Hints:
Layout: H1 2-20, H2 35-42, H3 47-55, H4 62-73, E1 80-81, E2 94-98, E3 101-105, H5 110-114, H6 120-125
Amino acid sequence: KLQQFFNHHMFVQEQEEYKQEQIEWEFVDFGMDLQACLDLIEKKMGILSMLEEECVMPKATDKTYLDKMNSQHLGKNPKYGKPKPSKKKYEAHFELGHYAGPVGYNVTAWLEKNKDPVNETAVKVF
């Protein structure tokens, strides 16, 4: 959301100010509306809510999470895609269409990282 705020301020509002001040310039459409990508990440049945849901499932794995995301979004949401094979160190499992282009994500250990186990010291105190 911060990136969207920055882009709006720096690119959209600046050009509106140019127009108000009658500065000659050629309008540039940066095409940076990030709302569709933010919705895919944050809304119900989005990437984060599906991750939260999968974390409470007893037999869930990174693969079951990825399979559910692909089932929900692949081919249905233009901002969600399957990355092309790459020789990078980490294989991308899915990609999001950000304003700067597609960005690949690897879901390895996402469930484990998202679980918020209670600190052992806190357990002993209770």
